[in-house]
Amino acid sequence: MEDVLGVYHRAYDAAYPVICMDESNKQLVGEVAPAIPMASGHPELIDHEYVRKGVADIFLEVEPLAGKRHIAITERRGRMEWAEFTRSMLEDRYPQAKRIILILDNLNTHGIASLYAAFPPEHARRLAERLEIHYTPKHGSWLNIAEIELSVLSRQCLGRRIETIETMREEVCQWVINRNNNQTPVKWQFSCEDARIKLRRLYPTL
After folding, report:
1. Residue 188 sits in a domain of what CATH number?
2. Which band of pLDDT confidence, cut at 50, 70 and 90, is reported for residue 68?
3. Which domain holds residue 147?
4. Fewest CB within a 10 Å sphere: which of 133, 195, 197, 199?
5. H or E segment at 22?
């Protein structure tokens, strides 16, 4: 926990950006009957029945101090998808960064081994050398700012029935563009000193 909190209080350095990454999913849902449009005296009426259309997986990265985020919507959520998302972050979105300080959870696909599973050894090694990974502790996902960003995405963009992955990609893309244009930063306030007071039960008694 203190390792992650220490990273959040580093000074901003464009050559060594701090990026948080997380994953989630969203059930794709279709309508059984058309909705009844809104009219005087009642809101739009949506039938409670629905049809399951599968699941879309969400990969999200956010650079808290720069107010930038990127999201990929995929059909699967495995080590290959994580490796490709990480590769595109390093080579496409942050090609000038000397090293990326990456915060994410301990999911078994979140590791250097996934890069070697997806790419030739020479390529995987080049990618790995540009990563400084910091894992959140078990039961400590609240320390990952990307989880906060996923919550905002869910409330502002995904809080309704979406039938196709194409529709989800379009709407999430617009949400990302608007949020990035506003350069919405995340101001993390919780420090190691705060943790030692508020979470003192987690520390050994000496």
Report:
1. 3.30.420.10
2. very high
3. 2-33+45-202
4. 197
5. strand 18-31
| Sign for the pseudo-dihedral over CA of 94, 100, 103, 104 | positive
Please provide the distance, in angstroms rounded to a whole number, between the alpha carbons at the two ends of the chain.
19
Number of domains present in the structure of the chain: 1
Q: Is residue 76 part of a domain?
A: yes
User: Using CA atoms, how far apart are residues 192 and 196, in angstroms rounded to an integer?
Assistant: 6
- Mean pLDDT, range 110-122, rounded to an integer: 96
Contacts of 152 (CB under 8 A, 6+ apart): none
Burial 67-85 (b: 16+ CB within 10 A, else e): ebbbbbbbeebebebbbbb
The predicted model scores a pTM of 0.86
Q: Is residue 40 part of a domain?
A: no
Q: Residue holding tokens 């997986």?
A: 57
> Is the confidence at residue 150, as pLDDT, over 90?
yes
Answer whether residue 53 is part of any domain.
yes
Confidence band of 43 (pLDDT split at 50, 70, 90):
confident
Give the mean pLDDT of 23-33.
Answer: 80
**Beta pairing partners, 63:** 68
